[in-house]
Specification:
Distance between the termini: 40 Å
Bound molecules: zinc ion
Strand content: 5-15%
Shape: flat
Strand order of the largest sheet: 1-2
Order of helices and strands: EHHE
Radius of gyration: 14 Å
Number of helices: 2
């Protein structure tokens, strides 16, 4: 298991948030662009730092009421 890549598609904006998990070593091309337009778009990837604390996603944050 080496799903530790954060990634972002420069074409459609697909990333690990949309996927719901971090990318693996095999996730080189954007699945969305490949399925929808048959275009292989190389994902921008960067290694998730295991030392870094998990950042809260804004959409997951509880609204202050
Ligand atoms: Zn894409």
């Amino acid at each position: 298991m080496s799903e530790c890549w954060l990634f972002h598609c420069p074409e459609c904006g697909f990333g690990e948030r949309e996927l719901g998990r971090k990318g693996g070593d095999h996730d080189v091309y954007c699945e969305v662009c490949l399925e929808e337009s048959g275009v292989r778009v190389r994902l921008l990837r960067w290694y998730a730092d295991p030392e870094a604390p998990e950042t809260e996603l804004p959409e997951k944050a509880e609204p202050a009421k």
